[in-house]
Design goal:
alpha/beta; Rossmann fold; seven-stranded parallel sheet; 7 strands; 48% helix; binds acetoacetyl-coenzyme A
Length: 250
């Protein structure tokens, strides 16, 4: 973790899509590590309010559509104005619009790429700008096993998550001498609403194919993110950390 200045004693983390699922568990982990966490959400007002009520002054929860560059710019302008720094960015916001490729139309394709990949681009651009001035920072991108090996019905999502891996490795190279580490975690199938929405018979097939025979917990991903933002991971950059119950990737 980076050093903080005397005027800004608290480290600032940004977690996109952090009111539910894996993002929510990451927020808990970072709050536990004493970060003030700026959490974005797009549509789930209720879970946003629940998070504000529960964590109060430990978080700032702001509606931001990461697929819109102007909204991302507004978010980071506000953070920089208030805190003057960005120590951690977790690009977590992600959506699926699953359909076999033959049925997938260009809006299914564009929407998923816009949120999952372009959103990571817009946020990383602003965070790296701030981190280079500080000469410190940590970015963790939430990719997926689907970005490593593809998945039936997920051409758009797989392409977006593979894109996130390419972005991770390139930004890691460009920032290795600037005190900034950039890594990706690749969750397998984690028990969240996203996996809950998979048709029952497909879900059963997936679960039977996981060596551990269970879906992962959001907390199990959050702990890995917690390690990658900690000072113990200072020599790790440009890597993919697989959290998938033993599913082999190739
Ligand atoms: N493997 C092999 N065959 C499959 C299949 C699969 N996973 N899913 C569907 N098929 C087959 C069907 O059995 C059918 O075969 P027949 O024509 O021989 O009957 C054929 O493909 C076409 O089926 P559909 O008409 O139902 O296909 P569709 O275009 O409507 O798409 C689907 C169906 C959207 C792919 C649906 O099966 C589905 O939602 N599958 C789950 C996708 C998935 O795994 N999503 C992961 C979400 S979690 C996540 O993304 C998080 C993460 O990072 C891991």
């Amino acid at each position: 973790m980076s050093e903080t200045s005397a005027e800004n004693p608290q480290s600032i983390a940004v977690v996109t899509g952090g009111t539910r699922g894996i993002g929510r568990a990451i927020v808990d982990e970072l709050v536990e590590q004493d970060y003030h966490v700026v959490v974005t959400y797009r549509s789930s007002e209720k879970s946003a309010q629940d998070l504000r009520d529960l964590l109060k002054n430990k978080v700032t929860v702001k509606r931001t559509d990461v697929s819109k560059q102007n909204e991302v710019d507004e978010l980071f302008d506000a953070i920089e104005q208030k805190y003057g720094r960005v120590d951690v960015l977790v690009n977590n916001a992600g959506i699926t619009q699953d359909r076999s490729f033959i049925k997938m139309d260009s809006s299914d394709w564009k929407h998923v790429i816009d949120v999952n990949l372009n959103g990571a681009f817009y946020c990383s651009k602003r965070a790296i700008n701030a981190m280079q001035k500080q000469n410190s920072g940590r970015i963790v991108n939430i990719s997926s096993i689907v970005g490593q090996q593809g998945n039936f019905g997920q051409a758009n999502y797989a392409a977006s998550k593979a894109g996130v891996l390419g972005l991770t490795k390139t930004l890691a190279l460009e920032n290795a001498r600037k005190g900034i580490t950039i890594n990706a975690v690749c969750p397998g199938f984690i028990a969240t609403d996203m996996v809950g929405a998979i048709p029952e018979e497909v879900k059963e097939k997936i679960q039977n194919g996981i060596p551990m025979r269970r879906f992962g917990e959001a907390k199990e991903v959050a702990k890995a993110v917690g390690f990658l933002v900690s000072k113990d991971s200072a020599y790790i950059t440009g890597q993919e950390l697989n959290i998938n119950g033993g599913l082999l990737t190739h």
